[in-house]
Amino acid sequence: MDRRHFMKSSIMAALANPIQAMAQSKTMKIKKGHIAVIGAGAFGGWTAHHLLKKGYDVTLLDVFGPGNSRASSGGDSRVIRGIYGEDKIYVDLVARSFKLWKRYQKQWQQSLYFPTGALWFFQVDDTYAQKSLPIVNQAGLKSEQLSKKEVEKKFPQIDLNGLKSFYFEHEAGYLPARHCCQVVLENFVKKGGEYKQLAVEPGKILNNKLSELILSDGSKLNADSYVFACGPWLSKVFPDALKDIITPTRQEVFFFGTPYGDSSLFESNMPVWVDFGKKIWYGIPGADWRGFKVADDTRGAEFDPTSGDRTASETGLESARNYLAKRFPSMKDAPLLESRVCQYENSPDGNYIIDKHPEAENTWVIGGGSGHGFKLGPALGEFVADRVIGNKGIDSFFALSRFNNDLDKKTQFNP
Ligand SMILES: Cc1cc2nc3c(=O)[nH]c(=O)nc-3n(C[C@H](O)[C@H](O)[C@H](O)COP(=O)(O)OP(=O)(O)OC[C@H]3O[C@@H](n4cnc5c(N)ncnc54)[C@H](O)[C@@H]3O)c2cc1C
Questions:
Q1: What is the DSSP string of 351-378?
Q2: 66: CA distance to ligand 1 center in Å?
Q3: Considering the domain 3-73+178-244+349-403, what is its CATH architecture?
Q4: What's the predicted TM-score (pTM) here?
Q5: Does the beta carbon of 72 sit less than 6 angstroms from any atom of ligand 1?
């Protein structure tokens, strides 16, 4: 039995075991209150984890499962990096996330974080990285500017033509995304959290409170608070209150085979990379032996996360091939190993949404990862949990009120 099947069956076995279920319901009774979290992706899974850790009785629900193939967290790998322009709030959350990824991979004895470093290269203005450098270094994430000569010497496998400046982040790397979501759930259940694989609809809002959840098995669930972390589906769950807040877009990702006998593009010799030009390309070399990952960060067409066609396009493939041939010449004519179509769940300004539902004070809406949410999962879950239980106030940076006057704020770069 492979690792994933083993984990899935152990979660299911834990749920099916009546003694464990009794033990679970006993622990539930003594908890501080009952919170239901809807969505077991990077945002919901980690939020559920932290709420449970803080002594709450938590039910986590997901219609398709943690890191499923339709979810935004359902990819093989996601970049973790600290350079975030001038947004100190993200840099601080990433710094905290690095600590938590490391802590939990040790505690749970699972590989969750692969530190390859990250190389950023700019064909265009590099203010984004330049201004970030002091902020990331102050947060303890060692990062530096490199000269072209240094990069040429260190990474001869990259064609530096047209590139003007270079930055290297030492702690950056990648996270095996869907595996991480499964591990979070597995440990949530082990610690007494309750998981239900069901579709959820919010019940009625009465007297400024959500009354209950309606579940796809016909049952209802009552909790003291509700956290909706439904990724690209968030606006669909609350079509009136969150109408144009989340726009899922179609994103294509390609995995290519590196040349036989050439290890220069293996992750042991090649960091995660981001190439800023007219377009932004980024990639991860070889995570989980899927191949050399390449993706164009440009927002694609609007996409339905449930029924959208997940076949990659010929034009997308051609564009990836042309890019690769230029920047990584040994990859010219590289065989395509796999392609995936996923969706970014974009907020209007590319920043997250962490706020109460405008009409229900016991209900939180969490999302808008906008192509950069995965890495922050552990710190974001902690950040959300603190707000849901009232330890900290809503942060205006993530509040819905920022869209009151302007839903057309521009999405920024954020892989
Ligand atoms: C191609 C691609 C590349 C990316 N690269 C990076 C990267 O390099 N670094 C990075 O940090 N981030 C990256 N991201 C972004 C990141 O993956 C997402 O922002 C993050 O995973 C979002 O997590 P989430 O929990 O909000 O959403 P999701 O993972 O989509 O989770 C939402 C969950 O809610 C469940 N759900 C929805 N509606 C219901 C309902 N009614 N009832 C029950 N369950 C429901 C779904 O089944 C799903 O599991 C990338 C995204 C994509 C698509």
A1: --EEEEETTEEEEEEEE--TT--STTHH
A2: 9
A3: 3-Layer(bba) Sandwich (3.50)
A4: 0.93
A5: yes
